Amino acid sequence: MADTKHANSITLAGTKLIEEKEYYDKNLQVILEEDKSLSQFFEQDTQPYNTGKTFTFRKTIPITPPTAPLEEGVIPDPNKIGLREYKVSMNPWGDYFTFTDEIKNYAIDDIVGDMSDALGNSAVELMNQRRYLAMTSSRNRWYAGLTKEQVTGTVTAIRDSVGGITISDLPKIKAFLFRMKVKPLQGGDYVFIVSPEIEADMMSPAKNTSQYTFIELTKNANYKPIYEGEIGRILGFRFVVNNAIVEQDGVHKCIILGMYQGKKALIERAVGSGKPEMIFNDLGSSGANDPLKQKGTVGYKIDAVGFAVRSDVACLVYECKPTLSFDTEYPQEAESLIIKQVNIGGTTGEVTPDKLLGQGSKELNEE
């Protein structure tokens, strides 16, 4: 008789019965949805399967309004509409862990849950990296301490000397966006996405002509944040801090966003539901390639997703150099000496089962 109670269950490592595979799918999705620090600024959509690996969108070229009133009985010449169509590639992504039958000797706790959490956190970082990469593809640039126009031979010297965001740039940028007919986002303000290092510069208690401080904002009872990661509001900008911004060529590329022609500047589209799927392959699932049931995998896959800048004018990349600089990763050897390290996935540690875990490939595309 079929086991109806466990009809949708799977086994892992021969002994681990996982009730409802959907639980781990949802767990992965929850981790992804908990971080909206960048996704909140994208217009998100999905498209059905079997519709290809690309999506297209169009932009309307602004038309010239009429210069003369209508005359009785006279049919005016029609205006001419201009459309530009853009095609964006969509690629699958995924990651996985491998395990061996040694897991039955060492894993007495929910190691699959640990794997799921690790993969979920990795997926968050992956998606934010791809979103940020799309943002920085905008050709709209502003260099700290300068006007919008790049001055040959002086950009590096001036931009790198100011130490963060230049206060006098803010009203100039706001005027530029307004002139370009870029509207503010929610709350009537533009959004300025900065790195943790730039945030530290902005929070400096010393106020001078080249830096701005947000110390006074903590005393403003009327101020209420709108966005996840928002740290302050001033001069028509809401500042959001995000860890996806890292040093590139000695500078940080911060992002300023608005709306153009009533739409967000950024697009994100996925195939199908757009949700990642947890994939389990138990010991021996490879058939003849694993005749003694020694290897298995736990991973996730995103079928296909693409990111694009819909409007460069409403996505401005602000290049500046912070006064602080940190390593991007915290060294493992700096952990507390009170605990003993038990590494079941690497080559060092107090207990190391042979080849128990090993990280697989993150990219499933040909990029």
Overview of this structure, please?
The chain has helices at 21-34, 103-106, 111-136, 155-159, 169-179, 196-202; strands spanning 10-12, 16-18, 42-47, 54-61, 82-89, 91-100, 141-143, 182-183, 190-194, 230-234, 237-241, 252-257, 259-260, 263-264, 266-271, 277-281, 295-309, 315-320, 358-359. It is of the alpha+beta class and 367 residues long.
Q: What percent of residues adopt helix (DSSP H or I)?
A: 10-25%
Major sheet summary line: 6 strands, mixed
Strand content: 25-35%
Total count of strands? 19
What value does the Rg take, in angstroms? 26 Å
Spatial separation of the terminal alpha carbons: 48 Å
Order of helices and strands: EEHEEEEHHEHHEEHEEEEEEEEEE
Average of the residue pLDDT scores: 74
Helix and strand topology:
Elements: E1 10-12, E2 16-18, H1 21-34, E3 42-47, E4 54-61, E5 82-89, E6 91-100, H2 103-106, H3 111-136, E7 141-143, H4 155-159, H5 169-179, E8 182-183, E9 190-194, H6 196-202, E10 230-234, E11 237-241, E12 252-257, E13 259-260, E14 263-264, E15 266-271, E16 277-281, E17 295-309, E18 315-320, E19 358-359
Parallel strand pairs: 3-15, 7-18, 9-11
Antiparallel strand pairs: 1-2, 4-5, 6-17, 6-19, 8-13, 9-12, 10-11, 12-18, 13-14, 15-17, 16-17
